[in-house]
Amino acid sequence: MLRLEGIGKRFGGLTALSGITFSVIEGSITGIIGPNGAGKTTLFNVATGIYPPSEGAVLLGEKNISALPPERRARIGLVRTFQNIELFGKMTVLENVMVGLHTQSKCGFLACSLRMPWQMSEERRIREKALEWLDFVGIPDLADVEAGALPFGKGRLLEIARAMALEPKILLMDEPAAGLNSRETAELAELIKKIRDLGVTVALVEHDMDLVMDICDQIVVLNLGTMLAQGTPREIQENPEVIAAYLGESED
Ligand SMILES: Nc1ncnc2c1ncn2[C@@H]1O[C@H](COP(=O)(O)OP(=O)(O)OP(=O)(O)O)[C@@H](O)[C@H]1O
């Protein structure tokens, strides 16, 4: 599905990543973890197209997408969510999801306001689809609320609904549990599994170890810009090098 091949990334003299090679298997949930400064965010940014890699390639299926900007990647099925939620605060929750759907439709957000008959039926279809995604993430009752007024946890769910409306093949999530309380994190775990059960491949960078160990099929551990380990949650929990890397961090 998604393959990172020999990824290296340098910022001036600093090597943030080197020799990162792994595949995200179709239909699975992959977690990317590692101590602070390990290179997780940088790897995420290379995978989603914020940074070009200094070395190596990002492949989606057979296609080398290393040079594609984030929006072109989204159009071919690689969609991301952000750690700092990016919503249109003045629009309603429903409109936030509809904007995403309009970008795929022949009826743009402005053109639809002209209200030609075919546009109205297209508009209705988009509205229904947006409502279905709000329902999927569990916030259909908030459809008419201004997005800027949402509590943080609900904003994260809206962001996931908006990403899902783009019908990704693979959803990359940047610290989806950051800022959530334990109840919200447990709900998020269920939601991510539900997304996987729809056939969408998921990869996430996450600090919440319980969440990662609970939901991931595969975990990739980064340390100091290199790949320290790859395996199932159990293999990772028992890996002495991983344990040492995390212990080193807590002693700092
Ligand atoms: N834009 C940048 N310019 C220069 N150096 C950077 C840049 N982005 C990251 N780095 C450096 O690359 C290294 C890896 O950082 P990165 O943020 O990817 O780690 P991380 O694993 O996401 O850390 P954390 O868990 O603390 O978020 C660090 O040494 C960081 O200072």
Structure description:
One of its GO terms (biological process) is L-alanine transport. The protein folds into 2 domains: about 1-85 and about 170-250, Rossmann fold (3-Layer(aba) Sandwich), CATH 3.40.50; about 90-150, no CATH class. It contains 10 helices and 10 strands. It has helices at about 40-50, 70-75, 95-100, 110-115, 115-135, 150-165, 180-195, 210-215, 235-240, 240-250, and strands at about 1-10, 15-25, 30-35, 55-60, 65, 80, 170-175, 200-205, 220-225, 225-230. The strands form 2 sheets. It has a 6-stranded mixed β-sheet, sandwiched between helices. It has a 4-stranded antiparallel β-sheet with strand order 2-1-4-5, covered by helices on one side. The longest helix is centred in the middle third of the chain and has 21 residues, at about 115-135. The structure holds adenosine-5'-triphosphate.
Task: List strands and helices in order, with pairings.
Elements: E1 2-11, E2 14-24, E3 29-33, H1 40-48, E4 55-60, E5 63-64, H2 70-75, E6 78-81, H3 93-102, H4 109-113, H5 117-137, H6 152-165, E7 170-174, H7 182-197, E8 201-205, H8 209-215, E9 218-223, E10 226-231, H9 233-238, H10 240-251
Parallel strand pairs: 3-8, 3-9, 6-7, 7-8
Antiparallel strand pairs: 1-2, 1-4, 4-5, 9-10
Bound molecules: adenosine-5'-triphosphate.
